[in-house]
Design brief:
The complex is a heterodimer of chains A (about 160) and B (about 350). Chain A has 7 helices and 2 strands. Chain A is mainly alpha-helical and about 160 residues long. Chain B has about 350 residues and is an alpha+beta fold. Chain B is globular.
């Protein structure tokens, strides 16, 4: 499946633009497509030129980000953008600033609340357990499952006590 | 592992048992995992890829499974054999088409497969017949723990398990349920299902996953979000949503039978008749007709054929399976003839057995 040409999501819309006889194909995900379509409603040539200028500026910014390179595996952000695959686990640190909004966009969250490797240090295990239980607590309250919520609250307090927080 | 022997059998996940197996073919969970100290497979050169392969493969013995996994060196397989494993859902298309050192560990029952050097270093997959996600999770969680106790996974406290594609980061989990929805397709109600699922961020894919067409009215429903929710939350979500779809399909089937019994019975019997008698038939037509027949059995309109046989025929009539069964390379037109002959033999042989 083709990747969106503006972010790393899968492209669901495939737009063929014909401008002044020049045919151009654009592949976009749903959210980028909405932006794209609302941004490009060309009526007169003047409008198009203005938009092209604005586009160039955005492109220049993007090209700065594209130059970023992971010191560990050597992949550039540009390569990641075109392939949709990262080069190594360290990329998540090297490109953190760029990846966090992307992850937020894809998952609607930027904090893991699932399984945790058992070999991780005790302190971070505890920290982690707390993050997970708090997220469950939030959900229980939203679903008005108060019995479960109170049980979760007790569990959270116990862990906090044990950790001397 | 002797791939030839597999042509006479089928995976346990096709046996057509388990909860709601009239509509749910199988449940599947996969986990994406990477080793902390290596670049991801797409960025790894040959020597790194083969290091990763031998390192991970060496850990498979420590899994304490009932029977040890059979290991298949996918990198050295012929194209036909790779396609064969894809058709059985033991490896992904991406894994088949990739390059360099890679392999897969497969359990005898074909319920467990561990792919090395797919998009991620390790992809663990557990399959079950019917709607059985809890069982899948218990098994895969145990396997994951057993591997994790021997290696260091790439993991961050904030972003969870780190994967080659950010769409899998966090839990690295894909929970999917393969459902057979012929009645919703006939009545075009399926569009409503797609829209409803899209709104709650669940994906719908065809029989062979991403980008594959919906063949034989099979759909895989799976989570898209992998970060910010726990594995259990994601599984529970599917466990809440899928029964609604099962109920919807059953209601529409009942309405079809009530209002159009004669024409439905006719359509299903014709489908069965073609499958039993055709002299040449494409894969696509086979899938479509088998889908009708499968629904006919579930509705009691066909009584001399069993679901596991039909489930198996969906797989065994695919191109690579046919060629493996016939032990020869077949061009498309030859395959259509071979497929028809295989179907005649499998479907009429059963009748003779009974008579």
């Amino acid at each position: 499946m083709k990747k969106c040409s503006k972010c790393a999501k899968s492209a669901t819309l495939h737009i063929t633009e014909i401008r002044k006889g020049v045919v151009q194909e654009v592949h976009l995900c749903e959210s980028c497509a909405q932006q794209y379509l609302s941004a490009t409603t060309p009526s007169e040539d003047e409008d198009i030129e203005l938009e092209e200028e604005a586009g160039n500026e955005a492109e220049r910014e993007l090209s700065d980000i594209d130059q970023l390179v992971c010191p560990s595996c050597g992949i550039s952000f540009r390569e990641f953008r075109s392939q949709g695959r990262l080069g190594c686990p360290h990329d998540y640190i090297a490109f953190e600033k760029e990846l966090l909004p992307l992850l937020e966009n894809i998952h609607g969250a930027t904090q893991h609340t699932g399984k945790f490797p058992k070999r991780a240090p005790d302190a971070s295990q505890r920290q982690y357990q707390l993050i997970k239980l708090r997220s469950e607590l939030k959900q229980a309250i939203e679903e008005e499952a108060y019995e479960q919520a109170s049980r979760l609250r007790d569990q959270i307090q116990q862990i906090e006590k044990a950790g001397g927080e | 592992m002797d791939l030839e022997s597999l042509t006479h059998t089928s995976g346990e996940w096709l046996r057509g048992t388990g909860p709601d197996s009239d509509i749910v073919i199988s449940s599947r969970i996969r986990l994406a995992r990477n080793l902390a100290e290596f670049p991801f497979p797409n960025r790894a050169d040959d020597s790194v890829r083969s290091d990763v392969e031998s390192l991970l493969r060496g850990k498979f013995d420590g899994l304490h499974l009932a029977k040890p996994l059979d290991y298949v060196n996918v990198g050295s397989l012929a194209q036909l054999d790779r396609q064969f494993l894809v058709e059985r859902q033991l490896i992904s298309r991406e894994h088949a088409d990739s390059h360099g050192s890679r392999g897969v560990g497969i359990s005898r029952e074909e319920n467990v497969s561990l792919m090395i050097n797919e998009e991620d270093h390790l992809r663990i997959q557990v399959l079950r017949s019917g709607f059985a996600l809890d069982e899948c999770w218990r098994e895969i969680d145990r396997i994951d723990d057993a591997i994790e106790s021997q290696v260091t996974y790439a993991f961050s406290e904030q972003l969870g398990y780190l994967t080659a594609c950010p769409t899998n980061a966090g839990t690295g989990i894909r929970v999917s349920v393969m459902v057979h929805l012929p009645a919703l397709v006939i009545t075009k109600e399926i569009q409503k299902v797609f829209q409803a699922l899209q709104k709650i961020s669940l994906a719908v894919r065809g029989l062979y996953g991403e980008g594959s067409q919906a063949m034989g009215d099979f759909y895989q429903i799976s989570n898209q979000v992998t970060l910010g929710q726990s594995e259990q939350q994601i599984i529970t979500r599917l466990q809440e949503v899928v029964p609604n779809i099962i109920g919807y399909e059953r209601r529409v089937r009942n309405t079809l039978v009530k209002n159009n019994r004669a024409s439905l019975h006719d359509q299903i019997s014709r489908a069965y008749g073609i499958l039993k008698n055709a002299m040449t038939i494409t894969s696509q037509e086979t899938m479509q007709l088998l889908s009708s027949v499968r629904m006919g059995i579930n509705l009691g309109l066909i009584d001399d054929l069993e679901i596991p046989t039909v489930n198996e025929l969906f797989i065994h009539t695919q191109p690579a399976h046919l060629q493996k069964i016939r032990h020869e390379h077949l061009e498309s037109a030859q395959r259509n003839t071979a497929r028809a002959s295989y179907l005649r033999q499998r479907l009429t042989h059963r009748e003779n057995e009974r008579n």
